[in-house]
Amino acid sequence: MKPVIALIGRPNVGKSTLFNRLTRTRDALVADLPGLTRDRHYGEGRVGERPFLAIDTGGFEPVAKEGIMHEMAKQTKQAVAEADVIIFLVDGRQGLTPHDKTITDFLRKSGRSVMLVVNKAEGMRYTSVAADFYELGLGDPYVISSAHGDGVNDLVEEALNIA
Ligand code: GDP
Ligand code: MG
């Protein structure tokens, strides 16, 4: 079985941008993944010789005002359950938000391995971009730019070591 990496985070932090970079496709490869639900996006990636599956949880973004948190939790829970390791994305330009804290609590309860990843950090110094996020209690943040690719290979190698 290929290790499964789930991309989790509130809307607009860059999950799909990272997913597209990891899998280099916009089409989910669901055909050969029996048992996995279809409302999220699955893709295959590779770092060096090591293949993995990525799940983009974009599908849980709210479509209606009612039950937003409920729907998000349901979708996120499913992706988390299928994952060997969670990449929890936050936005280094926007900084920490209450929504990030809610997701942190949710992920902590799951008992899964979580990597806290600060995205959109191109051109920013590690110490200044990471500082905001220590209070989440998830350790030293990884800092990347999904759009530019900075730090993405190292991140995935580390994720596969944990998975
Ligand atoms: P999602 O809602 O979490 O899937 O986020 P998207 O991947 O759709 O990205 C949301 C917005 O953030 C888009 O406008 C992206 O172009 C932008 N974005 C994503 N990654 C980066 C990044 O590394 N740097 C910057 N500056 N913008 C980014
Ligand atoms: Mg998305």
Characterization of this structure:
By secondary structure, the protein is an alpha/beta fold. It has helices at residues 15-23, 68-82, 98-110, 126-130, 152-162, and strands at residues 4-8, 41-47, 50-56, 85-91, 114-119, 142-143. The protein has a six-stranded mixed beta sheet, with helices on both faces. Strand 2 and strand 3 (50-56) form a beta hairpin. The structure holds guanosine-5'-diphosphate and magnesium ion. The site of magnesium ion has 3 residues, from helix 1.
Summed up, the helix count is 5
Relevant CATH superfamily:
P-loop containing nucleotide triphosphate hydrolases
Identify the strand order in the major beta sheet: 2-3-1-4-5-6
Low-confidence stretches: 26-39, 59-64
Beta-strand portion reads 15-25%
The bound ligands are: guanosine-5'-diphosphate, magnesium ion
Helical content class: 25-40%
- N-to-C series of helices and strands: EHEEHEHEHEH
Q: Give the class from helix and strand content and strand pairing.
A: alpha/beta
**Main β sheet profile:** 6 strands, mixed
* Mean residue pLDDT: 85
How would you briefly describe this protein structure?
Keywords: GTP-binding, Nucleotide-binding, Repeat, Ribosome biogenesis. The chain has 163 residues and is an alpha/beta fold. The chain contains five helices and six strands.
List key phrases describing it:
163 residues; alpha/beta; Rossmann fold; six-stranded mixed sheet; 5 helices; 33% helix; binds guanosine-5'-diphosphate; binds magnesium ion
